[in-house]
Each structure stands twice: as structure tokens, then as C-alpha cells.
Design brief:
The protein has 270 residues and is of the alpha+beta class. The protein has one domain: 4-Layer Sandwich (Phosphatase 2c, domain 1). 25% of the residues lie in helices and 30% in strands. It has six helices and 13 strands. The strands form two sheets. Strands 2, 3, 4, 5, 6, 9, 10 and 13 form an eight-stranded antiparallel sheet that branches. Strands 1-12-11-7-8 form a five-stranded antiparallel sheet. β2 and β3 form a beta hairpin. The radius of gyration is 18 Å and the shape is globular. It starts with a strand and ends in an 11-residue tail after the last strand. The C terminus is likely disordered.
């Protein structure tokens, strides 16, 4: 039986220069590739991000996941994180962003998910596109025309997010489902990367370094050298074989990115 999508991956993480604890967690084993950026203080964030990743790690080794599998994992993870807020100091919470491999009628698809301000990017034919949409006050200000995108990295509100798992938020996860292309490169990162490096700088590194592990290492190192104000975590995924129809491994047609769940406003969560 032909697998829907085969990948090569790399991952790296760093505490940064201003933090004593790395509250990021990640998983980078097929079919799940996720980054969670914890929050809450007093180790609550570290425990929250680890709890979410542990729930998804149960699926490592499967060929693909369905949307219902992902939703169920999110629900269980949310319960686990909410329980931390009652047993620890602080309001435990975490972002969650990433991609899982999906099988749609025998074809390889990317199922992207996001809640919070960690990100998923896609590099295709030399173009870097942010697939996920930040759930943040800054993003809402950009969309309303009150803030220019080029000012977002230095805005004092850049760390305030509007949805999370835990931390008093009941905001929902956004999902996107689209066919994989042979040669796709996906990047998942915590905001410790995107707050230090521009999209142009990220694209240049992804274009120059072919090896996904080397690319991940360079991205993290560059973010640390650029200031390292936060924990930095990066996962790079390359599509090396894609089933475009049952039983075949060839290129697929130009994808359409479809958001399967509308975004909604929520109160700010730090």
C-alpha cells in the first residue's frame, strides 16, 4: 500500500537569551509536526505545551490522520491544560500550530491547524506564504487598518494573543486542508522566530539550505543572534514523495488553500 505523503524533517529549539526556561514544546515525527508555545509562568507554560504535544505524540507512526482525529486530540489536550490551572500557580496555556499528514481518497494532503501566534509557512516555487493567521491583537489591528504590517514586530502589544489552549480562552482552532506538492517545504515556528526575523530573511535561509535539519538549526541560531528575546522553536518539513492519486507518487495539481473554520474575535490572553 502506497503511503499518501513521505517527508524529510528537521527541528531545533533554544531557550533564547532572556529566558531561563524553555516553555516551547514540539513534535516532528510523521504524521504529526507541531509547535506549542506555553504561557502562564511558574512552569505552567512548560507543562501546558508539553501536555498538548504529548497528546498528539500518541499518533506517531500512523500513515495519516483525519480531521476528527485532530479535533479529538485538541479536546483532550484542552482538558489536560485546563486542569493545570487549578493545580499550579498561574493560568496555564499554550499556543498550538502545525501540520499533520492527511489522506484524502488516497492522495497526500496537508492538514494545517493553528490557535495563537505560532505560525505555519509554506515555501513553494520560491514563494514563502504564511498559511496560518495569527490570533493576536496586533493581527486584528493590521486587519482593521490601524497598524501597518511593517510596524508589527516592534509594537508593544505584539505578545498579546486572542486565542489559546487554556489560559482562560475558549477560542477555537483554525484548520486548513490542501493537497501536498512534491517539493513543498513547510515551516512551523514559535513567535520567537517570527519576532526576530523578517519573512524575507526566513525565506532566504529556507531557499539556500536544502537539508531540513540544517535549515532548522540556522533559523534558530539566526533568531538568537538577532536578539533571542524569547524561546525559539522551528520544525522544517520537506515533501519528498506525494501520492496524487491512489497508488501513485507524482506531483499534484496547483493547490487551493481552504480555511475550514471561520476566525472569530476573542478577549486578549497574554
Amino acid at each position: 500500500m502506497t503511503i499518501p505523503l513521505a517527508v524529510s524533517t528537521g527541528a531545533a529549539t533554544h531557550t533564547g537569551l532572556r529566558r531561563t526556561l524553555n516553555e516551547d514544546s514540539f513534535v516532528a515525527n510523521s504524521p504529526v509536526f507541531l509547535v506549542a508555545d506555553g504561557m502562564g509562568g511558574h512552569e505552567a507554560g512548560e507543562r501546558a505545551s508539553a501536555a498538548v504535544i504529548a497528546e498528539f505524540a500518541r499518533h506517531i507512526g500512523r500513515e495519516a490522520l483525519a480531521l476528527d482525529d485532530v479535533r479529538d486530540a485538541v479536546a483532550v489536550a484542552r482538558t489536560a491544560v485546563e486542569s493545570l490551572s487549578t493545580t499550579s500557580n498561574g493560568r496555564a496555556g499554550t499556543t498550538l500550530s502545525g501540520v499533520v499528514i492527511a489522506n484524502v481518497d488516497g492522495m497526500g494532503y496537508w492538514l494545517v491547524l493553528n490557535i495563537g501566534d505560532s505560525r505555519v509557512y509554506r515555501l513553494e516555487d520560491g514563494e514563502l506564504e504564511q498559511v496560518s493567521v495569527d490570533h493576536s491583537v496586533v493581527q486584528e489591528l493590521i486587519e482593521s487598518g490601524e497598524l501597518r504590517p511593517e510596524d508589527a514586530q516592534t509594537d508593544r502589544r505584539r505578545n498579546i494573543i486572542t486565542r489559546a489552549i487554556g489560559a482562560g480562552s475558549d477560542g477555537e482552532v483554525d484548520y486548513w486542508l490542501f493537497p501536498a506538492e512534491l517539493g513543498d517545504r513547510l515551516l512551523i515556528c514559535s513567535d520567537g522566530l517570527s519576532s526576530e526575523l523578517s519573512d524575507g530573511a526566513i525565506r532566504e535561509i529556507l531557499m539556500v539550505e536544502d537539508d531540513p535539519q540544517r535549515a532548522a538549526d540556522i533559523l534558530v541560531s539566526s533568531a538568537v543572534h538577532a536578539g533571542g528575546r524569547d524561546n525559539v522553536t522551528v520544525v522544517v518539513i520537506d515533501a519528498i514523495a506525494v501520492a496524487s492519486r491512489p497508488g501513485t507518487l507524482v506531483e499534484t495539481d496547483e493547490p487551493d488553500i481552504a480555511d475550514t473554520r471561520p476566525r472569530e474575535a476573542a478577549g486578549g490572553v497574554r
